[in-house]
Specification:
globular; mainly alpha
Amino acid sequence: MSETGTSPIVPGSEASHSRPVLWLITLVAVGLSLFQLYSAGIQPLGLFYQRSIHLMLIMMLAFLMFPLLGPRRRRGAISGLIDAAFFAGALITGGYLVLFLDEIINRAGFWSQTDIVVGCIATVTVLEASRRAVGLGMTVIGVLAILYAFAGPRGELPWLGQFLPGILEHRGYNLDRLVGQLYLGQEGIFGLPMGVAATYIFIFVLFGAFLEVTGAGKFFIDLAYAATGRQRGGPAKAAVIASAGMGSISGSAIANVVTTGAFTIPLMKRLGYKPHQAGGIEAAASTGGQIMPPLMGAGAFLIAEYTRMPYLEVVKVSILPAAMYFGTVYLFVHIIALKQGMQGMAKSELPQMRDVMAAGWHFLLPLAVLIWLLAMSMSPMRVGYYAVLTMLAVAVLRFAVWFLFVAPKQGQPVTGATLRHAVRTGLAKLVGGLELGARNAVAVSMACAVAGIIVGVVGLTGLGLKFSSMMLAFSGGNLLLALVMVLLASLVLGMGLPVTASYIVLIVLVGPALTNEFGVPLLIAHLVVFWYSQDSNVTPPIALAGFAGAAIAGAKPMDTGFQAWKFAKGLYLIPVFMVYNPEIIMGGPLPVVVWNVLLAFLALAAFATALEGYLFTRMSWLLRAVLLPAIVAVFYPHLMVEAGGAAVMVLALAGNWLASRREARAAPG
């Protein structure tokens, strides 16, 4: 679900499509959503059937939604023919596997010429659909992976091998072997990333789409405002809370920024936050939505699949780190409000908690059902299915109560005409939700398909082990240097890949080294890589979520990006803390866990304070300089060093509080 989410902006510009194409988009999208609901809750399908039909429909949708020359250009005769050819390629890709799967399995390893030709069509079609739906960067990396597989003495392009550094050399593979790996095996296009996209991710994207079309998104934003609006910097705090809730469901930091930011950024600016601060706060909070349980974008499902841990276990251990992250952003927001002397919003400007709950309490029922079923250890795919059904049932019952009991009292009697109109409206919303869910899933599924190509090549060539050796050599066996290398690699990958794809590629490359060579527990290694994969959202010069925030705030993109980078510092520090204090994730003696949790919150608070130079009152440069080594000390896994660092931080923050009391007493009147 990672890359589009429940954005109000539906991918693909409608202006570039003729009416028949729009009808076809709706037909394919609704068909895809109904197929996913059927396979999730009624009749589960085999691995290849599920994944191949899903990818076929997703690619058909991609070629309909995104014309050859871009969303702003109408299809001409030639571009229309090319689009039709790729549309047929998508049909062939999925249809061939579905129709001839038994024969293909029976001749495993001894592929026919037709198998190879269809596999080539599938690979080209996947790369082109990814270029349109995800961007050129993803496709280029997929092409480079294929060229790397061909480079070698026994490969299709032996001359390419001479340009590879010694450690990256391999034997090379011919077309038949590569196509067998990418299209006809379980480690390529139809590998684990596509499996997760075709099952868990889609059903929760669909759930998010129904939350949007039924008005649940506005309910959660109003709830956040009612809870925090009267505090100092209230809208910014509401942005943090609303983004925590919406981000996990939407699965995209950028979609989260444009969804919640449309409400929160103008209010932050009105309250006194500078435009680039408002955009940066929203970007940092929205990025945090991707690490927020229960969905963590698509991350929780992928981590559960890769680590073979129960999904619920991944969710449980992710709650504390997510709370640390949002606590840090919340504190930054509070400190800026104090520094700039801001007040909360007037009561008359805010929704009342009582009114918000009265109007939308029913939206909590699908979430309650979702959490309850997860706690019952039901399959996430089946949980998503029941969550969608509950959402629909709640929406229908809510409307029925209004239509039959409330509307007549307001002078709108129930008649045959009003009933027909109500049914038509309801069906239109149902179709709209099914279509939006399918549209929103296109980018993440295509990202997972190309990630499958990359993962397939890594497995075929042994690139993962080579990368691990390089990582060990460059870091000299130093764990901190290795983590810095992972961070830099994630930043570079983030320039061209969506978050989900970046995580998949990076964990395949560096995961073995972190666990086998540096002794990082498997789950923590995955969490670290997943957290670091988010950094392209908030780290200049890319900062995609920051740029989206800048557009809404009317601020300079780079200024907003740097603010987002500052507010999202927990994204870098918390994974390091996980590595050096694994008890907060893996568990341990209760006193040790409690000590580490308190230490983490203290260090993050001290870090925010030192960076802003303010907590209860302004902080001197000397005190800020003293805080930095104390913060570093708590990452050193030795009790006395940690205790010393904690003591310095407590004394510094206490001194700042006493200074604020003295200033208050000295102030006139």
